[in-house]
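Hey,
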Amino acid sequence: MDNGTDLTYICVQILCKMKYNRVLLKLSGEALMGDNDFGIDPKRIAEYAEEIKAVANNGVQVGIVIGGGNIFRGISAASQGMDRVQADHMGMLATVINGLALQGALESAGVKTRLQSAIEMDKVAEPFIRRRAIRHLEKGRVVIFSAGTGNPYFTTDTGATLRAVEIQADVILKGTRVDGIYTADPEKDETATKFSELSFKEVYDRGLKVMDMTAFTLSKENNLPIVVFDMNTKGNLMNVVSGVNGVGTLVKN
C-alpha cells in the first residue's frame, strides 16, 4: 500500500470514528449452518461477508477465525472413541473448508482476502507467517486464519486468541447468536439479564462461559478485551466496531 492509500485509510477511520483499528473476529462453525442441520448455508455466509465488507471498507483491519463444528468436532469424535489427536486434526481441516467458503463469499462481495493455515497446504492457503499476516492487514486485506493453532488439544477459541495477540489486535469480537453475556442462558431462562460490561475476574468468579479457560486466560494475561455480540443481527458488527453503546458485552481487565 502506498502512502496515499495509507492516508486514505486513516482519513476514513477518522470520519467514521471507528473505536477499533484492528480486530479479530471469532465465528463458530455452527453459525455458518444458518437454519440447516449441517454444512454451510450460502445465504448466511453471504450475509456475513457483507457485514465484514462494510467494516473493512471503513478502514478497519479484520482478521477472522472460524470454528469447524458445522462439519466436524474433534472433541466430540474423541469422546466416542476416536483418537483425540487424529480427531483434532480432522477438526482443523474442517476450519480450512469453512475458511475457503468465507474467502469465496468475501471475494464475491469484492473484498480482497488472504487465507492462512497453521498446517501447511500450499495449494489452498498460505502458511501462517505473522509478519506477512500483519502486512496483509495493513494493505486492507481481510485475513482468515484457519487450522487453529496447528496443534491438537487446543480449541479454535484458543487459536483466535493466539492470533489476536500475535497480530496485535485491539479486541476479540466473538460473534454468537445471542447479544452478549447473561446471568444464565437467555434461550432457556426468561429471567436472565444481560451484562453490558464485565471484568475478567468477574467472569471467573461468576463461572460464566465466554471462551474456554485457556483462551480466556491468554486474553486476560495479554490485556486483550473481548466483546461478545449477536452476529446474526444486521449491522451489529459495524455497531460494535464503531463503539455503539449497548451492543454486546465487553470483557476487560
